[in-house]
Fold this protein.
Amino acid sequence: MKNLIVTCLISAAFALSVSAATVDTEKKWHAVIEAISMVESTGNPKAVSSDGRYVGYLQISKILVRECNRILGKEVYTYDDRYDKQKSIEMFIVYQERYNPEGNIEKAIRLWNSGDINCMNRKTATNGYYNRVMRKFTAQATAE
């Protein structure tokens, strides 16, 4: 019985630490996510691009949903999850933690726009987008 109680306490502590890590990761990316969402959808989780390929708060494609599931090694997200603000944020974090583990803000913005893991070698293709997001990011930081 004592072992069972200890095991339960350890499991609970682990679950809390994982939850805290998730919250910390989301806090780390919060300002970037907010700036990107304003450029992508003006913060509208129901937004759809003119060609219909990108939807939701962060304008996520079906390809990105599949990539997040591949990274996670299981089917966690559906195409409908692109319309869910929280799930969109989770997918952003999954993608960034995999391809931008150093948490570089410039790389995060350029990577999100291009989907190209070598985006830092091809900056000219994403300069306009990067500048628009940075204006939102800076305005947001000034307002806080």
